Inverse folding.
């Protein structure tokens, strides 16, 4: 992960260099076209997504648009943390490139480097407050 968005992700700042290297080996990079649904509310969670380039929106069936994001942001953490289904649908607003971290890798990193949870919690709280 050497692009500006992914390396500026606060989520990864808590990881030592060796952990970031390991993460890179187990990460996929994927590009989505504007209008593509990246994840769907109610689906099983397989990845955490870190946005490298582009922008997207988060929608819930009963609430409409509940958030937006851009480079350096991440999404998909809630379903991975509680091992439940996706709580929202995420749609690319323009061409969007993400790094996909497999669930097993995300959980292993979180156990090995619990400080990673702090920026994640800050982001979740900001989303709950509509920021």
């Amino acid at each position: 992960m050497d692009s500006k968005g992914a390396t500026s992700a606060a989520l990864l700042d808590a990881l030592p260099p060796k952990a970031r290297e390991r993460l890179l080996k187990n990460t996929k990079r994927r590009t989505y076209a504007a209008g593509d649904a990246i994840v769907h509310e109610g689906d099983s969670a397989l990845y955490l997504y870190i946005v490298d380039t582009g922008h997207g929106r988060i929608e819930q069936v009963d609430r409409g648009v509940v958030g937006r994001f851009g480079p350096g942001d991440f999404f998909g953490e809630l379903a991975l943390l509680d091992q439940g289904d996706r709580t929202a649908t995420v749609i690319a607003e323009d061409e969007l490139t993400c790094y996909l971290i497999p669930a097993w890798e995300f959980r292993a990193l979180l156990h090995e480097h619990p400080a990673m949870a702090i920026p994640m919690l800050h982001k979740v709280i900001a989303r709950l407050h509509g920021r």
Summary: Residues 12 and 122 are 14 Å apart (CA to CA). The chain has one domain: 4-128.
